[in-house]
Amino acid sequence: MTTMRSFVTVALVAASAVAAATSRICTLRPLGHGRDDTDQVEAAIARCGRFGKTIFKPGQYNITRKMTWDLVHSTVDLHGYLNFKPDVEYWLNPNNTYRVVFIQNQASWFVVTGHDFLIDAHNRGGINGNGQTWWSYYGNRSRSDGDGRPIALTLSHVNRGTVRNFRVESQPFWCNTVADSKNVVYDGMYCNATNQDPLYAGQNIVPNTDGICTYRSDKVTLLNWDITCGDDCLAIKGNSTNIHAKHLTCRGGNGIAVGSLGQYADQPDIVDNLVLEHVKMVRLDPKVQPNMKKGLYLKTWTGTVNGEPPTGGGGGGGYVSNVVAKDFHLDRLNLPVHVYQTNGGHSGDQPSKLQFSNMSFINWRGSVTANRLVDLECSAGAPCPNILFKNFDVSPPPGQAPSFVCMNVVNARGIPGPCNATGLP
Ligand SMILES: *[C@@H]1O[C@H](CO)[C@@H](O)[C@H](O)[C@H]1NC(C)=O
Ligand SMILES: *[C@@H]1O[C@H](CO)[C@@H](O)[C@H](O)[C@H]1NC(C)=O
Ligand SMILES: *[C@@H]1O[C@H](CO)[C@@H](O)[C@H](O)[C@H]1NC(C)=O
Ligand SMILES: *[C@@H]1O[C@H](CO)[C@@H](O)[C@H](O)[C@H]1NC(C)=O
Ligand SMILES: *[C@@H]1O[C@H](CO)[C@@H](O)[C@H](O)[C@H]1NC(C)=O
Ligand SMILES: *[C@@H]1O[C@H](CO)[C@@H](O)[C@H](O)[C@H]1NC(C)=O
Ligand SMILES: *[C@@H]1O[C@H](CO)[C@@H](O)[C@H](O)[C@H]1NC(C)=O
């Protein structure tokens, strides 16, 4: 601790927006020379994370073990990167991560909790996930949900927290999760999982690098996101309510997901009041990232329990309602809108009872690689009412007629064909 003092300065200063009237300031610089920064980072947050301000000077902070920041009336100015050591076997030991995200028992190496805080990384800091080590490690190994690959940034039990202008370089697994939280704003987030190992050129070697998973959280605002990944740009999971996302760019991957829902038979999943607007989906060079699959897709497990979470499950109820997806621009993706309720299922399963209703798709433009534009396969156990399309002007490939598929959809409006009908097919 005596050595720490030369790197952490503590002073009394005037108020900032979220800090108290008189508060401490801690200032850190990376130790460098292959030394471990975890102690000095933890010490600074312990000293200034409550009613204070912590300033990280630029550079790479060597983080070698799991870390929690408990921030209360606090500002963190992160001008550098928390660089999580690229030691796959170490992090896969369950003792070395947290398991605070209930769904699929996912692991976290860095958890932020607390209330009334701002983390501002000024577009020049954030997290360095050293993902390439992970993606190459798993290049010839199988992966599964809940296997211990850590989420890069986890917000857990947060109230009134803001994360701003924050970069995550090469997330090994999910880039962000917000769970058991409310009144959270993310403004200016960057995540980039791009393989550079020539051994895997042209393959999606970066699955599960989702931009964010929202879970058991209310009033979450996602503004100005730029996500490059090999999976879901956003994954809106169970009990995500009042989620507003605006000005997103999704580069490669699967698109924006709602789900999978209904994995836990005893825990209904609710998604209510979801607004997605000004979304750009961009296909990348296929040698770098071959996938750009969907615009918005919504999925549930079937009504039958098939195995147990984290990898199996199903049978869960709940509903998804009041979804608005507007001002989408698509660049050569496979399928703009997809609903299906057969995730993880087998033929002969009970139909899901989780119902989708009140969904609007407004002002969609751009191009796709196949002629199917909309595929709504709702469950026979819970047909989808009130699905509206307005100014849905997506172009199929030249010379091909657009196709729309609707199963168990009640009263879809605004697109031609079998979808534009009242009542059940
Ligand atoms: C981080 O610290 C560990 C432990 O001191 C050291 O072995 C490792 O080389 C450091 N890494 C970097 C990038 O400095
Ligand atoms: C985790 O820690 C416990 C308690 O210290 C220990 O018994 C166990 O062997 C550790 N597990 C692994 C995989 O290292
Ligand atoms: C996996 O790939 C690495 C690097 O190419 C190689 O060294 C290793 O032997 C491979 N392992 C298996 C099980 O194929
Ligand atoms: C993502 O990272 C790759 C590899 O470093 C880089 O080529 C690409 O420009 C980055 N994407 C964005 C949007 O910054
Ligand atoms: C979602 O919220 C409902 C109602 O509060 C609750 O019954 C259910 O267990 C929650 N589901 C999950 C996955 O937390
Ligand atoms: C769907 O919208 C209708 C009409 O606005 C409303 O009455 C109904 O409560 C909504 N359904 C849900 C599940 O919110
Ligand atoms: C829906 O069907 C009705 C009745 O056939 C037709 O008048 C209307 O133009 C159709 N709307 C669209 C957007 O295709």
UniProtKB/TrEMBL annotation:
The record's catalysed reaction(s) read: [(1->4)-alpha-D-galacturonosyl](n) + H2O = alpha-D-galacturonate + [(1->4)-alpha-D-galacturonosyl](n-1)
Question: Which Gene Ontology BP terms does the record give?
Answer: cell wall organization; polysaccharide catabolic process
Grouped into one coarse class, the protein's main location is: secreted
One MF annotation (Gene Ontology) recorded for this entry: lyase activity
Q: Where in the cell is it found?
A: Secreted
Please give the GO cellular component terms listed in this UniProt entry.
Answer: extracellular region
Q: What Gene3D superfamilies does the entry give?
A: Single-stranded right-handed beta-helix, Pectin lyase-like
Q: How far does the signal peptide extend, from start to end residue? A: 1-20
| Enzyme class (EC, first level) | hydrolase
Q: Which UniProt keywords apply?
A: Carbohydrate metabolism, Cell wall biogenesis/degradation, Disulfide bond, Glycoprotein, Glycosidase, Hydrolase, Lyase, Polysaccharide degradation, Secreted, Signal
EC numbers listed for it are: 3.2.1.67
Regarding protein family, the annotation reads: Belongs to the glycosyl hydrolase 28 family.
* Primary role: Specific in hydrolyzing the terminal glycosidic bond of polygalacturonic acid and oligogalacturonates.
**Protein name as it appears in the record:** galacturonan 1,4-alpha-galacturonidase
Task: Give the organism the record lists.
Answer: Cristinia sonorae
Q: Taxonomically, what lineage is the organism?
A: Eukaryota, Fungi, Dikarya, Basidiomycota, Agaricomycotina
